Amino acid sequence: MARGGTKLQVEQLKAERERVLLDVGRLREAYKFEVDGNVDEGDPNFAEREKVMALVRGLGRKLESIDNALRQAQDGMYGICECCREPIDPARLEVLPEATLCVKCKTIVEQ
Ligand SMILES: [Zn+2]
Q1: How many whole angstroms from 79 Cα to the centroid of ligand 1?
Q2: Residues 34-65: pLDDT tens digits?
Q3: Which of 7, 29, 41, 67 has its Cα between 20 and 30 A from that of 15?
Q4: Ligand 1 mean position to 38 CA, how many Å?
Q5: In angstroms, what is the span from residue 82 Cα to ligand 1's centroid?
Q6: What pTM was computed for the model?
Q7: Distance of CA 81 from the midpoint of ligand 1 (Å)
Q8: Per-residue pLDDT tens for 64-101?
Q9: C-alpha distances out from residue 10 to 22, 45, 47, 70, 97, Å
Q10: What pLDDT shows up at residue 33?
Q11: pLDDT digits over 24-36, tens only?
């Protein structure tokens, strides 16, 4: 991949990182608000809380991926699969700039 391309992806990743951090902050606030109230398992808010927690966990994982990809970019390894060291499909990086595994390895990891 051209160096200019990588620089653009890094900017994208940084912007995405900011967005994720904002989302986490917003969710954490919402979550805290619900914890302060009296919520038990029978409460309809319980499911809502679980949903928020799952979202926060998901965003946390996304943040980790973004940080990983940014570290890779620093090492000049952006767009290279962490597992098989083959270049990741640019089309995949376009939809998922934080991807650090190619589709093949990702499928294996998830199994
Ligand atoms: Zn791979």
Answers
A1: 10
A2: 555 555 667 777 787 788 888 888 999 999 99
A3: 29
A4: 47
A5: 7
A6: 0.77
A7: 5
A8: 999 999 999 999 999 999 999 999 999 999 889 999 99
A9: 18, 39, 37, 7, 8
A10: 56
A11: 998 888 777 555 5
What separation in angstroms does the CA of 5 have from each of 17, 20, 47, 94?
A: 18, 22, 43, 11
99 in helix, strand or coil? coil
Ligand 1 geometric centre to CA of 19 (Å): 28
Say how many Å lie between the CA of residue 80 and the centre of ligand 1: 8
Distance 77 CA to ligand 1 centre (A): 13
CA of 5 to the centre of ligand 1 (A): 20
In the prediction, which pLDDT does 85 show? 95
**Structure-token pair, residue 54:** 């799952």
DSSP H helices in the chain: 3-36, 44-74, 90-95, 103-110
Distance 69 CA to ligand 1 centre (A): 14
CA atoms within a 13 Å half-sphere pointing along the CA-CB vector of 34 = 20
The residue written with tokens 């109230």 in the block is: 37
